[in-house]
Each structure stands twice: as C-alpha cells, then as structure tokens.
Amino acid sequence: MSMPKPLSLEQSSINQLRTEPVKKQGHLVDGNRVAASNDALMEVISPIDGQVITHIANGTASDMDQAIANARTAFDDGRWSRMPPASRKSVLYRLADLIEAEALALSVLGVRDNGTEINMAFKAEAGSAAGTFRYYAEAIDKMYGQVAPTADSVLGLIHHEPVGVVGAIVPWNFPLMIGAWKLAPALAVGNSVVLKPPETASLSLLRLGELALEAGLPPGVLNIITGEGAVVGQALGLSPLVDALVFTGSGATGRRLLTYAAESNLKRVFLELGGKSPNVVFADAPDLEKAAKVSAAAIFRNSGQVCIAGSRLLVEASIHDDFVDALCRATEAFRVGDPLELATDIGAINNANQLAMNLQSVRNAEAEGAKTRLGGQQLHESSGGYYMAPTVVTDVRPHHALARQEVFGPVLAVTAFNSEDEAIQLANDSELGLAAGVWTSNLSRAHQMVRNIHAGVVHVNTYGGAENSVPLGGVQQSGNGHDKSLHAIGKYTNLKTAWIQL
Q1: What mean pLDDT do residues 76-90 have?
Q2: Cα(176)–Cα(496) distance, rounded to whole angstroms?
C-alpha cells in the first residue's frame, strides 16, 4: 500500500486556487450529479468576504428518499457489502491517496466555504481525512469474529455484519474531517451511506464524493444530498430504510433525530453534541507560559468553532491574575483575518448568524456582571466577511450563561478556584461532558482529575491533538457516540450469533 506523503503549503499556490470559479453543485445520487427535484438552489456565501461563490442543490424530502432507496439497493445487491475485505481496503486506500493528491485544492475550497484558517484546514481537513481513510482501510481485513466457549457438543460463532444503510449528518466547522470520521468506518465494514452535509459548508464533501467514485467505490454506495436540515435531514431521520444515524451538531437537533427514530423504525442513533469544556490550570503546572499559550489556542483556533474547545478556563486563585495576563499576551499575538493568508492565525466565523450570536453572548455576560478583559467586538467589517476578536471574559460565575451554554465562537469564560475539590465541582457543574484539560505537575492529582471529571476526553498538560488511535465522544448531554479508533466501528455493525449443534 502507498505511504502518506508530506504535505506543505505555499501562498502562491493558495492564491491561484482562491479565485477559481466553483461550478453549480447538484446532489450525488447513484454515482451521478443531479439537481433538486424542484430545481431549487441555495447560495454558498463565503465567510471571507460575504460574497456568493456558487450555488448548491436545495434538496427536497423526495430527493432524500430517492438517495436512501439507491443506498438500500446498493447494500442489498452486495456490490460493496459483499465485496472481499481486501478489495474494499484497496478502494479506501486509493481514496486516501486521491484526497492527499488534492489536499491543497480541497483545503482552499473548504476554507472559501467555512472560513477556517488555511494552516489548520490543511492539516485538520484534508490531511486528517486522508489519514482517517487509511486508518480504517488498514483495519478492514483485521476484524475477526469470535468462537464462544461452549460445551464440546456445540459450536458458538459470533459474526460481525454491516448494519445496512447509514445516514450521516455532519457540521460546518470541520466537514471533511468529521465526515471522514463517519464515512471511513461505515464504508470499511461494508455499509452504504447517505450523507447530509452542512448547509454552509458542503463543497469539500461533494468533491469527496466524486473522489470516492474515482477510487472505485461502486455507484450508490455513497450518496450525498444537500439542503436544509428541517427538510432533508428530517427525511433522513424518518426514513424506515435507514438502519443507523450518526450526527455531530447541536443538542436541539440531536433531540429531534432521536424523536424521528422513535417515530419511524427505531433506528440506532449516535450523537456527538458539543461541549462546554473546562480547562483547569493549577499553580503547579509544569510551564505556566506554555499553558497560557496552549489554552489560548484551545479556545481561539478556528475562531472557537471546535466541539472540544476549552471554553471554560478554571485557574487557581493564587496565579489567576498573572495567568490571565499571560493568556491575554498570547491572544493578542494572534492575527485575525483572511483565512487564506498563511500569516493568519484565526480565520472567519462561518456565517453571519453565528457571528451575531457570538457577539450577543459577550453582551449578555457583561449584563450578568462578568468583565470583558479582551476583545468582544467584530473585526474587519468593511471586508464584508464575518470576523470577531478573540474575547477573554473574567469574573464568570458558575450560574452565568457564559459558563453553561456553548457559544461555539472565540469567547473564553474565566473563573477562579481555590482548591482541587472546588476545581472538580466547577468542572462538573455542566450538563455537557465532551472534553476537559488539566495542567499540573502532581501525578496523583492528574490521575484524580482524569478519574473525577465527567468528560469523554481529558487532556493533561496539553489540549487537543489526539490521533485516530483513541476515541472521541462525550458523556451526559454531549451525546452517546464515539468517533475515531477501532471503538467507532461498533456503531456500524450488527452482532449475529450462530449456535450450531455438532
């Protein structure tokens, strides 16, 4: 199999791609590009400058139903589901190679669509997606069934079978990366997939669908329907032909998907619903300056539009003022601006509505008595794009909305604590539980914090950067589905027992 190639960026190459016309995009159904059944279109507005760069199909419920029917036919006739594992492995490896070959073009296209700074997008979108498809391709022919311990007169076999048709709905912050987290394991074990991309970031996923066909994925195995969640997303959730539904996004939408499953065929539903993640800094952190820089990146990268963002900073009172000073210095060094410039550290907010909500969250925090230490305002308004200054808000109390509600923007809530017990209490004072961070030199304390914080991922003396070898998922109202690692495969398979009398 091919080995990954090193990826690199050059501003001149980015500049050549940023102005390329983007053709009107239809759905991808049964291997063909098709318009919406009513010919309706949606504008694709770039958050870089607020300009329309193309149009995509605004799908109908019947469009989604047709895509699901094609996926069901593709699964039932075995064109992919009964293909030998080694053959599926070769297809996914070729897809990884094609993603890597187009890494820059895919990344620039995605940035024009969703606003992520190009340095991050290049690694976290195209680079990560290629790695994810390779990871699950490599796993395909290494997944075994089991022989159960039984009496000599009986043979008990446990088979792992693909679940059937998988519906996948992904968000706009990292559509290619999160799309790969769901598509790669679902396809690896032989399922067919119907993908619903985010309304405001569909372009890179539509291109991924074309690359999958080029790699040899049979038509109908991956179908992509664009449009509004209230229309095509609802149709996907309600379809009796869909066997499993995987989703990353808001809690409100996740609840609706559970309702759709209950109202239809009780399809299994796996949800990753974001977080309000605590990042806990003790006075004995091994390097407070490094902790400040990493903590700033943990909330402000991709303009805070990261599900695991360390959006609640809990700082031991004895170092609170000095640490906040260091964090603000690190934050002020970030350059906010055009996400297709390599010198930019923080790109654009994805859309105008999200920018407005982010700004309002700061005003609400001030009304509750918190203090805006840094930022809080819109930037580069004359560009027509959607930019916001990285914002540090101090004196945030546990009952404040900013301590409890996910903003999904570059807004950091800072709260002081006086003891380890108080830090744990503050960290767990949330209905969410996706991620957390702990900074300490005390090994015992680190293990105690990992054990006691209610979160699916706890970082120690770092934040972010976990690889495909470990799962990502949350507890409580952050959801019930894990992406990444071999643990993710269970979502996409059924267990079947064969009980054989000898």
Answers
A1: 98
A2: 32
Percent of the chain exceeding pLDDT 90 equals: 97
Residues forming the active site:
272, 307
All CATH 3.40.309.10 domain ranges in the chain, comma separated: 278-467
Superfamily of domain 278-467: Aldehyde Dehydrogenase; Chain A, domain 2 (3.40.309.10)
Q: How far is CA 208 from CA 27, 28, 105, 202, in A?
A: 12, 10, 12, 10
Tell me the pLDDT tens digit for each residue of 127-161: 999 999 999 999 999 999 999 999 999 999 999 99
Burial class (CB in 10 A: 0-12, 13-18, 19+), 39: exposed
Buried/exposed 333-344: b ≥16 CB within 10 Å, e otherwise: ebebbbbbbeeb
Please name the residue that has the structure tokens 């079978």. Answer: 161
Class of domain 11-273+479-499: alpha beta
Beta strand pairing call for 312-316 and 278-281: parallel
Locate CATH 3.40.605.10 in the chain. 11-273+479-499
Q: Is residue 6's pLDDT more than 70?
A: no
> What six digits make up the tokens of 109?
């296209």
Please provide the DSSP assignment of 253-300 as one string: HHHHHHHHHHHTT--EEEEE-----EEEE-TT-S-HHHHHHHHHHHHH
